């Protein structure tokens, strides 16, 4: 138990360290980067949607990947399990970045504008904080003994966890549809259908030659789709249809201030779950919309779903490197006010008042 927890933590911390080194390397090459930037790539979003879907199928079907892998080269069961814990730590960091952005935004924004000897310790500290619950279990493994005894309920629970994986895949597909085109989305959906069919056939086949053939087909399909993803064109068009919303531009703050117009800027992205939640529970509420209209407050949306250097520069100006970010200004204010990363209807209205 202790080894598994420590390996998971090691995977998390190494991931944060690699992200920090990658960001520093990109910055030294003159690029602008921010937190969650990996999900601005349709290739990564498409790949993660396929991965989440496959994990869901594995959880739902009677597929034991661990036991099968141990037969390859007579690898020991423990070694394979340990590597799985390490890789799970890495995957957790990659997939969770849109959720962790509101809590890490200020720290990462500070770290990215500091010298390397300050940036790296900040990222390592973030990694330790991310992994702390598992780190606690590694030193107090007896806490796991409080869990129920193993039994058939574990199989049912494993099957249940397939549905959060499918939900994650659906969310990623929605992000993918915004970033690309309808044709690319349909192609990806057809690939997911073929993957599910091939995996179902594999689980219901006993003949080795047929199973090996199906596995080769599955692998080939996966490789071909990854190649297709790399050739997809990113759609930078903003499909905002609400006439009451202004689309963010590089000089919009200066323009609105010169006209003495109050404004609320929403720096958001489709892949940012916190952004979408804030929009539903606060910014899209009738009372908030009514207040904005009655008080002539311009509502501006800066969509960072796809790469946009100007938006990232604006985020950096406010000491942030990721979304969400909410900036409010009205005539008479010396500087803009930054609203909390987690919003409610009351928080927004109180800030605007």
Write the layout of secondary structure elements.
Layout: H1 2-28, H2 42-60, H3 65-70, H4 77-112, H5 116-139, H6 152-160, H7 162-179, H8 182-203, H9 208-230, E1 245-247, H10 252-258, E2 263-268, H11 273-283, H12 286-294, E3 298-303, H13 309-317, E4 325-329, E5 337-338, H14 345-352
Parallel strand pairs: 1-3, 2-3
Antiparallel strand pairs: 2-4, 4-5
Helix pairs in contact: 1-4, 1-5, 2-7, 2-8, 4-5, 8-9, 12-14
Beta content: 5-15%
Q: List the secondary-structure elements in sequence, H or E.
A: HHHHHHHHHEHEHHEHEEH
Unreliable residue stretches: 65-79
Radius of gyration: 23 Å
Largest sheet: 5 strands, mixed
By DSSP (H or I, 4+ residues per run), the number of helices equals 14
- Helix-and-strand structural type: alpha/beta
Helix content: 55-70%
Mean of all residue-level pLDDT scores: 82
Q: Please provide the count of β strands.
A: 5
Describe this structure in words.
This protein has 353 residues and is α/β, with parallel strands linked by helices. Helices cover 65% and strands 6% of the residues. The chain contains 14 helices and 5 strands. Strands 1-3-2-4-5 form a 5-stranded mixed β-sheet, covered by helices on one side. A hairpin with a 7-residue loop joins strand 4 and strand 5 (337-338).
């Amino acid at each position: 138990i202790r080894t598994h927890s420590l390996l998971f933590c090691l995977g998390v911390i190494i991931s944060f360290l690699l992200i920090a080194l990658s960001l520093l390397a990109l910055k030294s090459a003159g690029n602008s980067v921010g937190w969650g930037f990996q999900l601005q790539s349709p290739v990564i979003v498409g790949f993660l949607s396929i991965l989440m879907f496959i994990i869901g199928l594995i959880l739902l079907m009677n597929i034991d990947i661990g036991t099968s892998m141990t037969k390859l080269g007579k690898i020991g069961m423990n070694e394979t399990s340990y590597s799985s814990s390490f890789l799970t730590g890495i995957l957790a960091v990659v997939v969770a970045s849109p959720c962790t952005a509101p809590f890490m935004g200020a720290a990462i924004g500070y770290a990215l504008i500091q010298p390397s000897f300050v940036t790296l310790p900040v990222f390592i500290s973030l990694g330790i904080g991310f992994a702390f619950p598992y780190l606690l279990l590694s030193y107090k493994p007896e806490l796991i003994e409080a869990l129920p005894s193993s039994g058939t309920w574990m199989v049912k629970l494993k099957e249940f966890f397939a549905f959060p994986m499918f939900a994650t895949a659906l969310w990623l597909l929605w992000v993918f549809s915004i970033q690309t085109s309808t044709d690319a989305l349909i192609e990806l959906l057809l690939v997911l259908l073929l993957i599910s069919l091939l995996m179902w056939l594999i689980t219901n086949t006993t003949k080795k030659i047929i199973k090996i053939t199906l596995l080769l087909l599955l692998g080939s399909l996966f490789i071909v789709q990854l190649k297709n993803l790399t050739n997809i064109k990113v759609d930078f068009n903003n499909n905002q249809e609400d006439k009451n919303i202004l689309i963010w531009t590089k000089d919009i703050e200066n323009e609105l201030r010169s006209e003495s117009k109050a404004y609320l800027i929403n720096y958001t992205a489709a892949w940012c779950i916190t952004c979408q939640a804030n929009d539903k529970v606060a910014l899209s509420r009738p009372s908030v919309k009514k207040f904005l209209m009655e008080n002539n407050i311009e509502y501006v949306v800066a969509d960072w779903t796809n790469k946009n250097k100007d938006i990232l520069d604006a985020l950096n100006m406010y000491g942030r490197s990721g979304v969400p970010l909410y900036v409010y200004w009205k005539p008479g204010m010396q500087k803009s006010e930054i609203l909390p990363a987690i919003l409610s209807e009351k928080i927004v209205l109180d800030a605007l008042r």
